[in-house]
Every structure is written in structure tokens, then in C-alpha cells.
Design goal:
Elements lengths: L2 E6 L4 E7 L6 E8 L3 H11 L2 E8 L11 H14 L5 E5 L3 H11 L4 H4 L2 H20 L3
Parallel strand pairs: 1-4, 4-5
Antiparallel strand pairs: 1-2, 2-3
Helix pairs in contact: 3-5
Length: 139
């Protein structure tokens, strides 16, 4: 059984989320400095079977590409070349960071934890993965 891995690409940090092997639960895994993410993914995929990748597609609320879209597209292409046997899907990530902040606030986390941008990125990756799973697997 293999997992699906989702990526919330950022210029400084990249959030990563995965499903369980049965693809029932989407969970935030970690946040990695962006310059280290491909090496992290190589190591992770050597230890865990990964079926495919889901990379967030950064869009503005009106549907136009966000400023970071070109970098996220280039990252998705590099990922596809590094793992030619694993498909790379794109998933609309509009509002995932704001939703992640809301979830952290509702969890009752202390102020210091609410300011943790790495936590926001990891939860945003889990939300991207959850949206992908709802649209493609959990029907």
C-alpha cells in the first residue's frame, strides 16, 4: 500500500502532508526549508512507498495565478523529472493558509504556537491533500 503526498510550496518553507497507507486519513507530516525539500522527498520516498504527489496550485481568489505560481510550477516540473514514475497532480490551494490559521486558532493554541508559520504550512499541505482526496478518492 502506498501513500499520496501533498506539498504546499513556499519560497522559504514547504509544508508536506501524507495519507496513511490505506488513503483514509490526510495528515500534516512536516515543514522543510524549500532548498532542502527535494532531498527530503528522495529520502522519504526511499523509506515509504508514495503513489503520487499533489502540489498546491497558488491562485488568487479570482482564479488568476498568484505571484508564486511560476515558482510552484517550476517546482512541480522538477519533481516530475526527479520521480518520473510518480504522477504529479496540481490542486487549487486558495484559502488553505487562512483556513490553517483558523484551525490553529480554534484549537486553542497559545499565541506563540499561532505565530508558528511552519505549523501553518504543514496544516495547509494537509488541507490541499484533503481537498484532492475529496475530489479524487473519497467519493
Amino acid at each position: 500500500m502506498s501513500r499520496i503526498l501533498a506539498i504546499d510550496f513556499g519560497l522559504k518553507r514547504t509544508g508536506i502532508a501524507v495519507t496513511d497507507p490505506l488513503k483514509i486519513i490526510a495528515s500534516g507530516l512536516t515543514t522543510v526549508p524549500t532548498q532542502e525539500v527535494l532531498a527530503f522527498l528522495e529520502k522519504y520516498c526511499a523509506e515509504e512507498p508514495v503513489e503520487c504527489f499533489v502540489v498546491g496550485l497558488p491562485l488568487y481568489p479570482d482564479g488568476n495565478p498568484a505571484q508564486i505560481a511560476a515558482q510552484a510550477d517550476a517546482f512541480a516540473k522538477r519533481l516530475g523529472k526527479l520521480f518520473p514514475d510518480k504522477p504529479v497532480f496540481r490542486q487549487d490551494e486558495r484559502n488553505t493558509s487562512n483556513e490553517a490559521k483558523r484551525i490553529i486558532l480554534q484549537s486553542g493554541a497559545k499565541k506563540q504556537k499561532r505565530r508558528d508559520k511552519a505549523l501553518v504550512d504543514k496544516i495547509a499541505a494537509a488541507l490541499i491533500l484533503e481537498q484532492y482526496m475529496q475530489e479524487n478518492h473519497w467519493q
